[in-house]
Amino acid sequence: MSKPHVVGVVGSLRDQSYTRVGIERALAAAEEMGATTELLDLREFDLPVFDADHREAGDAVEFVDRVHTADSILLGTPVYHGSYSGVLKNALDYCGFDEFEHKTVGLLAVAGGGFPITALEHLRSVCRALNCWVIPHQAAIPNARNYVADGRITDADIEDRVTTLGEEAVQYANIEPDPACFESTENIGADD
Fold it and tell me: What HEC string does the chain produce?
């Protein structure tokens, strides 16, 4: 069996993004487990606001193709107004079942405050609608400015959670998926 390929998507456009630090750490852990990895930094893609009539706009084809190659996908987001970022939502709108169905997905959320959980719940719902297998373990970096400095996570417990996410992305990369979940069978707009 070939090495699993883990792709990490950074749903932040900030130059000094704490989300990027978290995804980079999770990918490093995946690499240490023997996976090949790739960082998809949404700052580097021209992804106009999604329009179903123009699915190949900007760098959409390249982005979708790179997500499609993954065995496991790590989605990282800052928390904005209790949910995940618009830039990540827009990138996910370019994708569909072809890119996500039966894939393993790990979730990471970063918050300026202490409550990143709802963003993770929202992403979990989106992933279930795409019939992914979402890793039960999820990573959160609350109060990020206190725990991320100089491009690294400074809190041992938080770093352990993020590292575990990367390791489990490899461990469960080839898990046999469950039968289609209810959310995915009701996702009639997926090919709209």
Answer: CCCCEEEEEECCCCCCCHHHHHHHHHHHHHHHCCCEEEEEEHHHCCCCCCCHHHCCCCCHHHHHHHHHCCCEEEEEEECECCECCHHHHHHHHHCCHHHHCCCEEEEEEECCCCCCHHHHHHHHHHHHHCCCEECCCCEEECCHHHCEECCEECCHHHHHHHHHHHHHHHHCCCCCCCCCCHHHHCCCCCCC
In angstroms, the Cα distances linking 157 to 141, 147, 161, 192 are: 10, 10, 6, 42
- Looking at 3.40.50.880, 1.10.1060.10, 3.40.50.360, 3.40.50.150, the CATH number of the domain 5-175 comes to 3.40.50.360
Residue 47 Cα distances to 59, 60, 178, angstroms: 6, 6, 32
**For position 192, what pLDDT does the model report?**
47
What is the structure's pLDDT at 178?
Answer: 67
Q: What is the pTM of this model?
A: 0.92
Q: How far apart are CA 45 and CA 105, in angstroms?
A: 21
Which residues, in sequence order, are bridge partners of residue 75? Answer: 9, 107
pLDDT average, residue stretch 119-138: 94
